[in-house]
From TrEMBL:
Span of domain Transposase IS701-like DDE: 1-192
Pfam families assigned: DDE_5
Coiled coil stretches, renumbered: none
SUPFAM superfamilies from the UniProt entry: Ribonuclease H-like
InterPro entries for the chain: IS701-like, IS701-like_DDE_dom, RNaseH-like_sf
Name of the protein described by the UniProt record: IS701 family transposase
Origin species: Planomonospora corallina
Length: 358
């Protein structure tokens, strides 16, 4: 949490007066400690301070653009930071969010097949033998399994369309009776009234053809950096082709339309117990952006991707320590008096860094 431009071993060592970075490097590489055990402690700390029965888990991946080919997981792959293929590492993350606050509780490093299928490259980076290729949605399934085993209290899983489109992730949620509100692509196959399969986009076409303003309802889905995020919403019952909901649950298609640019539309598939009110689903859809805030604070304030490590173990240790720092700040912010929230929009970074240590 020090005021250091890049939170790597050398700059942190210089900040506290060390002549070398050996001690920080030892902590991340050779020291004897378990990053997964620390991850479990971070989760317990977050739940103790922010846990609520109506909390949500949010899945998304973030990227770290790096140079060279030696850093574990490094490959030419899609980078969410730039929207194009970059030489980067991709890390699926899991955030816990409630009315009290939000912080990371789990993490994974995505290893492309070019890594998992190269024994020499794996050995140089210290990748454990048991680690096999897993898609990003499969890594989220692994993290969800850990959260269920840990008893993490949450009502919904939220994610963007990169995860909502994956049938295996949805099937896992159906099998475990996990409610979710995930963005989905326009070509997600649904079952139409007469039994034929049609893409999600056709539902919007029929709604627009009705031409009735009353089909849409203007609602906020939460507060953003510029105030309430207000959109026009509509909802219809849905049947996903080849994928039934869990017993007692139902699928609902939420359609969100921009107020200022009506052609900007996003689709959300909700899986929840039957008769859950639509406003609750809209609120859940709005929680997805909390992980974007965690990514921003993690990178800009806490050096989440400032590392200069190349191997598997140091990567997990650095990222988990950054998660711990964010969890501490989120817990301290949650303990501030209610009127402190009024200043959050004016200087949220300062509020995070200046939270009282008591």
């Amino acid at each position: 949490m020090a005021d250091v431009p890049r939170k790597n071993s050398w700059q942190l060592a210089d900040h506290i007066g060390h002549t070398t970075a050996h001690r920080f490097e030892h902590l991340l590489d050779r020291a004897k400690w378990d990053a997964d055990a620390l991850r479990d402690e971070v989760r317990s700390y977050v739940i103790a301070h922010l846990g609520r029965a109506d909390g949500v888990l949010i899945a998304d991946d973030t990227s770290a653009i790096k140079k060279g080919r030696m850093s574990v997981g490094m490959a030419g792959q899609y980078c969410g930071l730039t929207g194009q293929v970059e030489n980067c590492q991709v890390m699926p993350m899991l955030t816990y969010a409630s009315a009290a606050g939000h912080a990371f509780v789990n993490r994974r490093l995505y290893l492309p097949e070019s890594w998992t299928g190269d024994p020499q490259r794996r050995a140089r980076a210290g990748v454990p033998e048991h680690v096999a290729f897993r898609t990003k949605p499969q890594l989220v399934i692994d993290m969800l399994t850990e959260e269920l085993a840990a008893g993490t209290p949450f009502r919904y899983l939220c994610a963007d369309a990169a995860y909502g489109r994956d049938p295996h992730l949805r099937a896992f949620c159906h099998e475990r009776q996990i409610s979710y509100v995930m963005a989905v692509p326009i070509d997600l196959p649904l079952v139409a009234a007469r039994g034929e399969v049609e893409p999600v986009g056709h539902v919007l076409d029929r709604i627009l053809a009705l031409g009735r303003a009353g089909v849409w309802e203007r609602r906020s889905c939460g507060a953003g950096t510029k105030g309430l995020r207000v959109y026009d919403w509509t909802a219809v019952s849905a049947a996903v082709a080849g994928q039934a909901p869990a017993p007692g649950h139902a699928h609902t298609l939420l359609i969100r339309r921009s107020v200022s640019v009506p052609t900007e539309v996003e689709f959300f598939l909700a899986h929840a117990p039957a008769h859950v009110p639509v406003p609750e689903l809209i609120d859940a859809a709005g929680m997805r952006w909390k992980i974007e805030e965690n990514n921003e604070h993690g990178k800009d304030l806490l050096g989440l991707t400032s590392y200069q490590v190349r191997k598997w173990t140091p990567w997990h240790r650095h990222v988990t320590i950054a998660m711990l720092a964010l969890a501490f700040l989120a817990a301290m912010r949650a303990a501030l008096p209610a009127d402190a929230d009024e200043t959050a929009g004016k200087g949220k970074d300062r509020l995070l860094l200046e939270a009282p240590a008591g």
